[in-house]
Amino acid sequence: MCLPGLLGGEGGSYGDVMSLSESTTVAVSPALPVSLRGVGRTFPGVNGGEPRVVLRDVQLDIAPGEIVALLGPSGCGKSTLLRQISGLDRPTSGTLTIDRTAVAPADQRSAVAFQEPRLLPWRTVARNIELGLPRGLDRRQGAARVAELLELVQLSHAAGLKPREISGGMAQRVSLARALARGPGVLLLDEPFGALDALTRLTMQDLLVDIHRAEPATIVLVTHDVDEALALADRIVLLGTRHDREGATISMILDVPGARPRDRASVVLTRLRAKLLEALGVPSHHGS
Amino acid sequence: MSFDERGGAPVRRPSPEGRRSASLFQFVSSFGYSASGTAISEGSRSRSSLGTVLLGLVVPVLILATWWVAAESPEVPDYLLPSPAQVVLAAIELAESGLLGTYIAISVQRVLIGFAIGASIGLAVGALVGLSPLASKLLNPTLGALRAVPSLAWLPLLVIFMGIFEPPKITLIAIGAAFPVFTTVAGALRHVDPHLVEAGRAFGLTRFRLLTVVQLPAVVPSIVSGLRLALAQSWLFLVAAELAGSSMGLGFLLIDSQNNGRIDRLFLAIILLGILGKTTDALVGLGERALLKRWG
């Protein structure tokens, strides 16, 4: 799944890589392991108020190439946890590592697709994707990589359009392509399909499965959609709070069996769905 | 080609008729402000079809007609209201003597130099204050206090410091142009969508690259509207500076005509200021459209 010798890194020579891999024009980094040890995040009180504990004691090991879904009710700290892994925010306690070295501020080994597409409105679709390219790539290689990504997210026809000229689903695909541009070792997705209509969301989930097959990265996906987690994840990590303690932590980890793409109506998944909904405090009405 | 007042006509000193020129001052200053306001709203919808142009001409034509009729009527004395024809004749007469061209050239030169200097300073300081919380805390109180001083109040001091030729006039115009640019740029940079800035950071952009790739493009529309405001201010301060002491320029033409009772030339100067102000604003407007097409 990840070819040896493909470690692009800073000093990597792209020429060698291109001879090794025909499908990509950029050194797609091999999927990297992520490790969280006792991670906690407390926000200082606003205007001298009480500090707010959002996360505590998060302990998790993610294998290279694994897809992990972080599931939980709104506002439980899923996005905060993702921001710790990306290095855009720093934990107040505990340690995070990617590939056994500490996560740096805005760590460039990972790439984020945010909840909102966050595209630069004055740049075309293609130029927005360019933003995600690794530094030091020459113009021709960059253009080839962007063309390849546009193909991957099926937006070749929209390359020259501005963000305001495309639909929400297309904008999310651009955002995804931008995150993939550097061939990240860890892909962090923060409810990337949350704002899309149900049909588009299903298409996007299939697309993500295809992308993961073409360019396997470790994926951490934040979602509040149980079905999405079941369709995509190898493991589902449920975040929740206990009523006697402030701050969310992992309350359950579920292995999801079956190779992707999965039959969304399979009996196994139905049973897991009931279990997850139960854990989230929603009666599933399964088998009643 | 460059102008200054050395070797020109003898320099006027402020005359004892201070009272009358003071009232003219106030008139000009309020005129300048309202002109800046309309200039901006007009520019943003200037996708001009023939119909829009014709509609826009209705009121000027009506004003011209009313003016003409009023000037011809025996109740209105000539020394209060010249006829449009008299104004045109005054223009021809001044042009033939070569003075009109000189006056227009030196006024435009002063506005452009002062505007360029003031806008550059406003842009630089605005960027600093908008981006750096430290610079903002350090400079904001002082800049706020400086801005609170009506800019014309600097003029007497500038004349004492810099003499009577070009430097004090250009400095005054620069002061007038700097503040609108500073205010809009600093404010806009402070309010660049934090989501976009964070996205830029996530993709490895730091300080300078973040500024050029995300923050500056995001504030291009604000910079342009700040520049238009600054340009209108530049014309306002040009007239102020020339009224207060000069031997050339459209402001000089105003005060000179007032003193000599040449109401026709006075009208001419006002009309020329209107035309020049509108023309420079339209040029900036063209630039604005090109910029917004690229960055908007």
Provide an overview of this structure.
The complex is a heterodimer of chains A (288) and B (296). Chain A has eight helices and ten strands. Chain A has 288 residues and is an alpha/beta fold. A six-stranded mixed beta sheet of chain A has the order 6-7-8-3-9-10, with helices on both faces. A four-stranded antiparallel beta sheet of chain A has the order 2-1-4-5, with helices on one face. In chain A, helix 4 crosses helix 5. The longest helix of chain A has 17 residues. Chain A is globular, with a radius of gyration of 19 Å. With 296 residues, chain B is mostly helical. Chain B contains eleven helices and no strands. In chain B, helix 1 runs antiparallel to helix 9 and helix 10 packs antiparallel against helix 11. The two termini of chain B are 36 Å apart. About 14% of the residues of chain B have low confidence.
Superfamily (CATH H level) name of chain B: MetI-like
Please work out how many helical segments of chain A DSSP would assign.
8
Taken in chain order, the helices and strands of chain B follow as HHHHHHHHHHH
Largest sheet of chain A: 6 strands, mixed
Proper CATH architecture of one domain in chain A: 3-Layer(aba) Sandwich
CATH topology of one domain in chain A: Rossmann fold
Class by SSE composition of chain A: alpha/beta
**What helical percentage do the residues of chain B reach?**
over 70%
Q: What is the strand content of chain B? A: under 5%
Total of DSSP H or I helical runs spanning 4+ residues of chain B: 11
Give the uncertain stretches of chain A in residue-range form: 1-23
CATH superfamily of one domain in chain A: P-loop containing nucleotide triphosphate hydrolases
Number of strands of chain A: 10
The largest chain-to-chain contact, stated as pair and per-chain residue counts, equals: A-B, 16 and 18 residues
CATH class descriptor of chain B: Mainly Alpha
Order of helices and strands of chain A: HEEEHEEEHHHEHEHEEH
Q: Rg of chain B from C-alpha positions?
A: 22 Å
Q: Quaternary status of these chains?
A: heterodimer
Radius of gyration of chain A: 19 Å
